[in-house]
Sequence to fold (265 residues):
Amino acid sequence: MTAGAALSISNLTVKFGGLTALDDVFIDIAPNTIVGLIGPNGAGKTTVFNAISGLVSPASGKISIHGSEMKWPASHELAELGISRTLQGVGLFSGLKVIENVMMGADQSSGSNFFKDLIGASGRAEAKLRQRATDALAWAGALHLAEKMPGELTYPESKRVSIARSLVSYPQLLLLDEPAAGLGQDDIDKFAALLKQLKERCAIIIVEHHVDFIGAISDQVYVLNFGKVISSGTFDTVKRDPAVLAAYLGTSNQTGSEKLGGQNA
Ligand SMILES: Nc1ncnc2c1ncn2[C@@H]1O[C@H](COP(=O)(O)OP(=O)(O)O)[C@@H](O)[C@H]1O
Ligand SMILES: [Mg+2]
Fold:
């Protein structure tokens, strides 16, 4: 494990009945960096997020946050631990303004008492939460959308709002599961720029099928296949790794290098 890493996981094994979904997985994320997690469908990427966020119980494994080893978090502990995760898809409440949706994120993303604690009965607490939501919208480049209703947003705008919602607890670690899904190339480029700004505030671990996008934003990349880390390092290193090319070859008619962003390895 790396001392002082925003997050360090080692020997993580997760089983679903007879299936070993994760086998001795390790991941280190330094503060203010982006880690990309890639691998074929079913490799175990989402299960890594589920283990970090208390949705599955590991059979074994260690987790440290900022150098302190702790027990695997329960989902209601995430906000306190500074961990936030975007929900699948966009999932905004259509009857609430954008700013209110972002305020709701304090509760929804973590299942914690954070929202209730902040709101309580006092108007002062609500003002504090509104300020956090305003900050989060600004960080996500979506402050101008604060007073809109979700139905008025374009799809890329709603993605920004969902990122803002995950930032309302001021996380130190942000987990993003396929945030670029459904975006066109133009918006993917803007999104990459946004994430590079966001890593000044928090470490980010991102699962994404757009391998070019992962290559453009990630400081480190981990490649999972059948529940194991088969390669890790910079994108330039892993994309040339024969084990990675073989894993991608096994799932596609394309060559592994085409799937890994059209580069000649
Ligand atoms: N809750 C679950 N119950 C049983 N099997 C699961 C569950 N979640 C994931 N799996 C299985 O674990 C493996 C890894 O899944 P997942 O982490 O979703 O992969 P990825 O996100 O890389 O596509 C797959 O074989 C999947 O079917
Ligand atoms: Mg997945």
